[in-house]
Amino acid sequence: MGQALGCIQVDQSTVAIKENFGKFNDVLEPGCHCVPWCVGSQLGGYLSLRVQHLDIKCETKTKDNVFVTVVAAIQYRALAEKASDAYYRLSNTKEQIQAYVFDVVRASVPKLSLDKVFEQKNEIAKAVEEELEKAMSHYGYEIVQTLIVDIEPDVQVKRAMNEINAASRLREAASEKAEADKILQIKRAEGEAEAKYLAGLGIARQRQAIVDGLRDSVLGFASNVPGTSSKDVMDMVLVTQYFDTMKEIGASSKSSSVFIPHGPGAVRDIASQIRDGLLQGRIDEV
C-alpha cells in the first residue's frame, strides 16, 4: 500500500538511491520517504553502510621459490557521503578488492624469503591496506582493516620444515647429552683419583705404623732379654709374620695346598730365606 502511494522505508545503517526518470536524484537516509512514481521518481536500490568482511586466498611464490597461499581478511564499508559513487561506479566490489589484493601480495611476497614472509606479514598487510585505501576511496568505499590471517606453505614444504626443526632439536639434545656424559666421566675420574690418593696415604701410614711397631718391639725385646741381639729378635719377628701369612692362606677357601719344611732347623732356614729375599730385593732396587 505504501509503495503504491509512493512511500518507502529505509532501514538503519542503510541508504536508498532515489532516481528520477532513471537519473540519480538523491540519497535517502534511514526513515520514511515519499517517492512519487507518478512524477517519474523511483527507487534505484539500497546500499548497506555496515562493515563487510571478505576473505581472499592468494597463491604466490617466495624469493626462495616456495609456493605459499596467503589468506587476507579485508573489512570495508561504503561511505554515506559517497553513496552514489559506491552504488553506480562499481558493479562487483568484492572482485575489485580481490584484484587489488592479488596485485599487492604477488608484488610483495616474491621479494621475501619464506621466513621473512612470516616475520613481515604485518608489513604486507599494511601495504595491501594502503593500496586498497588509495584505490577504493575513489569508488566511495573505506578500508577499515586489513589482516594477513594465514600463510600456508605447500604440504611437502611444511613437512620438510618440521623435519629440519626436529633434526635441529635432536642435534642440540645429543650435544647436551654428550656434554653431560663428559662432565660425568670427568667427575668419576676425579673421584677415582682422589680415592686412590687417599688409599695410598692409608697404605703408607699402615706400613709406617708396622715399621714403627717392629722397631719398638725389637728394641724392647733386646733390652729386656740379655744376650739377644737385634738380629735375633728380627729373625723371630720375620718367622712369626711368615707363619701368620701361611695361616691366612690356609684359612682362605680358594687357596691351594702349601707344603713347608717342619723341624727345629727349618725355622732357621725359613728366617734365612726371608732375610736373603729381602736383601736381594733391596739390591735389585738399587
UniProtKB/TrEMBL annotation:
The organism's place on the tree of life at top rank: Eukaryota
Keyword set includes DNA repair: no
Pfam families given in the database record: Band_7 (PF01145)
Keywords, sorted A to Z: Coiled coil, Lipoprotein, Myristate
Residue ranges constituting the Band domain according to the UniProt record: 5-165
The keyword Coiled coil is assigned to this record: yes
Alphabetical list of CDD domains matching this protein: SPFH_like_u4
Coiled-coil zones: 118-177
The protein, known as: Hypersensitive-induced response protein 2
Gene that this sequence comes from: LOC113716961
